[in-house]
UniProtKB/TrEMBL annotation:
UniProt superkingdom: Eukaryota
Compositionally biased residues, Basic and acidic residues: 67-92
Listed Acidic residues bias regions: 103-116
Region of interest (Disordered), residue spans: 41-125
A Pfam family this chain is assigned to: HYLS1_C
InterPro entries assigned: HYLS1_C_dom
Official protein name in the record: Golgin subfamily A member 6-like protein 6 isoform X2
Residue ranges constituting the Centriolar and ciliogenesis-associated protein HYLS1 C-terminal domain according to the UniProt record: 3-52
Length: 125
């Protein structure tokens, strides 16, 4: 400060102000200081409360998502079991056709004789 020129008035003012602001008298602006401290404390409490609420909401959403996933898995398993049961039931119900006869010509001759007997009521030769 001793080396400052007389023309450097603005810088000298800010330097004096900085020095003056360093020195506080006891009790000076105590109300203002108390209010600013209380305001800061309120803001801190509010931000903590907000963080706590957001954390609780996040946990609630995650638990709901987990419950939905569990319900979907249970539903898929039930659907899969029902499908498998239906397939088993269908496989049990399916009766394989009888094997084909080895002599189809014999069957035809028997049928033709049966037809002749039926139409006349008497055996036809």
């Amino acid at each position: 400060m001793d080396n400052r020129k007389k023309t450097d008035v603005l810088n000298r003012y800010f330097e004096y102000k900085r020095i003056w602001d360093k020195h506080r008298y006891p009790g000076e602006n105590t109300k203002e200081l108390l209010w600013s401290q209380q305001l800061k404390e309120r803001q801190l409490r509010a931000s903590r409360h907000q963080r706590k609420k957001s954390q609780e909401a996040k946990e609630q959403v995650l638990s709901l998502m987990a419950m939905r996933e569990e319900e979907e898995r249970a539903k898929e398993e039930a659907d899969k079991e029902a499908y498998e049961e239906e397939v088993r039931r269908q496989q049990e119900e399916v009766v394989p056709p009888p094997p084909p006869d080895e002599n189809p010509s014999d069957d035809e001759s028997d049928d033709s004789e049966d037809e002749q007997k039926d139409t006349n009521g008497l055996p036809v030769h």
